Each structure stands twice: as C-alpha cells, then as structure tokens.
Amino acid sequence: MADEVILLDYWPSMFGMRTRVALEEKNIKFDYREQDLFNKSPILLEMNPVHKKIPVLIHNGKPVCESLIQVEYIDETWPGGNPFLPSDPYQRAQAKFWGDFIDKKVYGPTRLIWGAKGEEQEAGTKEFIEMLKMLESELGDKTYFGGETFGYVDIAMIGFYCWFDVLEKCGNFSIEAECPKLIAWAKRCMKRESVAKSLPDSNKITKFVPELKKKIGIE
Amino acid sequence: MADEVILLDYWPSMFGMRTRVALEEKNIKFDYREQDLFNKSPILLEMNPVHKKIPVLIHNGKPVCESLIQVEYIDETWPGGNPFLPSDPYQRAQAKFWGDFIDKKVYGPTRLIWGAKGEEQEAGTKEFIEMLKMLESELGDKTYFGGETFGYVDIAMIGFYCWFDVLEKCGNFSIEAECPKLIAWAKRCMKRESVAKSLPDSNKITKFVPELKKKIGIE
User: Fold this and answer.
1) Whole-number Å distance between alpha carbons of B28 and B40
2) CDD domains, from UniProt (chains A, B) (predicted)?
3) Which residue in A56, A198, B159, B214 is a FRET match for B62, CA 20 to 30 A apart?
C-alpha cells in the first residue's frame, strides 16, 4: 500500500514550512490541505484536539502534531538518503537545543515586531536581533547549522526567512547589517528546491500582515 | 576512561527531577551540584550561556541543556536495558508530543496556582485541572504512559507530583478527586527507586513555596 500523507497547514506559517521542507527533502508526495484558522475545520479539530493548531501531518490516517516532532518523525519514517539529525547523541542534543531555542526565543519577538507598537515593538526588535545574533554565532562559518549537510536546525529556522522583509519594515532595521552570515545561509538554503518550493514569496507575506492584524483585531 | 557526569540542578525543580530520574534509571553515577538561582555560579553561566537555567547535564566536560533533551541524550548515550522511548517512529512522536504538552500546558498553570491570587489563581487552577484530565485520558488504564514500561512521558511528568500537595492547598482543590488514575500512576512511579530517590518530600516543597515567593518578591 502506498503511503497516504496529508498535511493540514496554513500558507504563511513558518512552522508549517518546516514540515513542507522536510517532506520535500525526503521526496514524499503529500496532499496539502490549506486550513482556515479563523473557522477551524472538523478534520483539524479531530486530528489535533489538544492544541487545535496547524501543521498536522496525517500519515496513513494517524496524526502527528507539533512541527519539530513532525520533522523528526519524517526523518525516522523515511530515513533513506539525507538524515536531518546526526547520529552522534551529543550532536543530536545540540541540534534539538537550537530547534527548541528557535521556538522559545525567536518566534515570540517576531509577533511583537509586526503586532505591537512603540516600546513593546522596540523591545521585540531588540530581542529578535539578539536572538538572531546567537544563531549567527552558532552557525559561524559553517555551510549549514549541522555542518556540510542541510538538516534539522536549518529546517527549524528557514521558514522565518520569508518573514524577514516584513519584520524589517515594521521594526525599521536591517537583518543583513546585523547578521550577514545568517542572510548568506538563508540564501544558500533558498537554492534548494525543497526550500524554494515550500516558502511563499516575501512580498506575499508583507501584503498578508495588515490583513492578519485586521483579522485578529489589532489594527 | 570512566564517564564524568555532573548535574547542575536546584532541588525543587520538576525539570531537574526529570534528569535525576533518568540518570538513576540508567544507573549512572553523577556529581550533583546544587545551584543558587538567585546568585548564579560561573559554571552555570559558562555551561548554559543561552538560557542560564538549570538543569545542565555535563558529560565529560560537554553541556547538554533543557531537561527533555537531556532525557533523550541519556537514553541514547546509555541505551542498555530499559529504553525511555519506544522504537516505533509513531509511538516516539506521541511520547514527544506529551512531553512537549507538559512543558507548554502543565507548567504555566502551576505558577499561577502558587504565585497568583484571586481570579488569576482560579483561572490557573481551572486550566491545570483541565490539562491533568487530558493527561489522565491519555494514560487511560495503562500502567505507565508508554504501556507496561516506565519511560519518557512518565519521566517528564513525575516531578510535578511532589508539588501536588502545595498546589492543592493554594488552589483549594483535590487532584485525586479529579484525576484518580493519575494519582494511582504517580504512586506506582514512586515505588521505583529512581523516582523515590530523586523527588523531594512534598512537605519540603510546601515549606519552600512561601520562601520562594519572598525571594521573587511576590509575597
């Protein structure tokens, strides 16, 4: 029986992008089902009753929730070729640490940059740059976060790249001026078909943000 | 060369307890170093410069941060005997989902129960019971979260048990009345030497909370 892979997702989500990239990297065909987060579908509520959030990866009828857990699941289910995580336990722990760091420290400030104003927005911008600098220092002169191979941390972070333009406009700063190596890394990632195919155009995100603010009632 | 294992920890931490239990389960001798979180030591700042938090597991001089990552690291580094995570990718993903759920959904409300008052405290209590009920429903009639074997989700959750008494007193509710199966599970876990050895006495936590509130300036 061929695998049935369904992805419940929402196009601007940097979390959903992780799972898209991971599936593309493994050459897994999947049925992408766009979700309306302001009117959640029965399948989303059924497949992720705890968090009621996208992305949800449904493999042969069984749901896997939380994007980084999905990335690991994809790596373990389709191990052939390019593993996302190294085999050495210490290096694996380091990769997971930075994936977790992105969730805990990078995502929050982005919301303040596009969603807040004044002091709160400034604090978000400052925090965001600081966090990106930590990532840049971890990246160093390597090609990818894990070294020569595109992997787990790259997948965890790359979706934020298509939000960089709108964040820079909202917060009035330049990421490239602060973190040139990180931008060079993102451009390298964008040359991969898996990434280019999975990330929406920055302009589309820029146009989407005012719409989103209206939808959630902060504009 | 024998392994050198150091744990930077703080005795009331339910996160630190995870790592203690995991090390005990694998029969790994470790050098426990109590940390003063209100006056952080040079070794803590050096070994976890990003978050500056305990627990930090230092294995042969190299730090691993974040408790659930440590639990996986311990499982992968000392695989003999009792694996914490199942080998099946789907079951692994489910275990990681519930570990992540405990971090995202169970911990937050506990702080409101002991640290807040009035409506905020009530909201925390309500949320906490709701989250415990979700865990109880996931546990069902199984011996442990993973089935017959004590593992990852048990390790992720059990440290909260020694906080239950003080939470019940602060929030004026009974966890056993709401979640009898969860309490039976916790009592089963407490029969394991690894757990009994790693969790402080509930009374000690109850006495500690007013002290903690003074220290962080909320009393």
Assistant:
1) 26
2) GST_C_Tau (cd03185), GST_N_Tau (cd03058)
3) B159
